[in-house]
TrEMBL record:
Pfam families: RVT_3. GO terms for molecular function: nucleic acid binding; RNA-DNA hybrid ribonuclease activity. Transmembrane segments: none annotated. Residues 84-165 form the RNase H type-1 domain. Gene3D superfamilies: Ribonuclease H-like superfamily/Ribonuclease H. This is RNase H type-1 domain-containing protein. InterPro entries: RNase_H-like_dom_plant (IPR044730), RNase_H-like_EbsB-rel (IPR052929), RNaseH-like_sf (IPR012337), RNaseH_domain (IPR002156), RNaseH_sf (IPR036397). CDD domains: RNase_H_like.
Length: 168
């Protein structure tokens, strides 16, 4: 069974995931506990505020001479899927990193997604490489064999696309 979620539901769920993460961090790092009900309330409030601010920005952009080009996601050509991966590295602690993967089809529908957290990371390059590896593993597990991988870590992308063997 394949379920197609509306854009509004995906947006709300995304903001709710963020609020769950914020609640978790407040509990772990600041010993602050908040009720579960606050997640939904804050998520709806944040999403509403975000949408309102974006409306204001788009109004300001009308009539301006210079427009900045915003990179937009491009769907893969059927029958391919696209696996976008990204990661972050905590420079302050220099031992924590995390990332995520989103796999979408040629219609832009999300086929799968995952996030990960990893201790004992030594560099941004290492966690970005881990994100690509997790993307590849997820595609393999799900049986996707026609995949475009897309990430913003230039060193990782260049290394994968290089014909030169680097054993370092």
């Amino acid at each position: 069974m394949r379920l197609k979620l509306s854009k509004e539901i995906v947006e709300l769920v995304s903001v709710m995931f963020y609020q769950i993460w914020v609640r978790r961090n407040a509990f772990i790092f600041q010993n602050q506990f908040s009720k579960l009900e606050s997640i939904s309330i804050r998520a709806r409030s944040d999403l509403s505020l975000f949408k309102e601010n974006n409306k204001e920005r788009s109004k300001c952009a009308v009539g301006t001479q210079e427009r900045t080009s915003i990179p937009r996601w491009e769907p893969p050509v059927w029958p391919y899927v696209k696996a976008n991966f990204d990661a972050a590295f905590d420079k302050e602690k220099e031992c924590m990193g995390g990332g995520g993967v989103v796999i979408r089809d040629s219609d832009g529908s999300v086929q799968a997604a995952l996030t990960f957290y990893k201790d004992h990371i030594s560099s941004a390059l290492q966690v970005e490489s881990t994100a690509l590896l997790r993307a590849m593993e997820l595609c393999s597990e799900l049986g996707f064999n026609q995949v475009c991988f897309e990430g913003d870590a230039k060193l990782v992308v260049d290394a994968v696309n290089s014909k030169r063997v680097d054993n370092s």
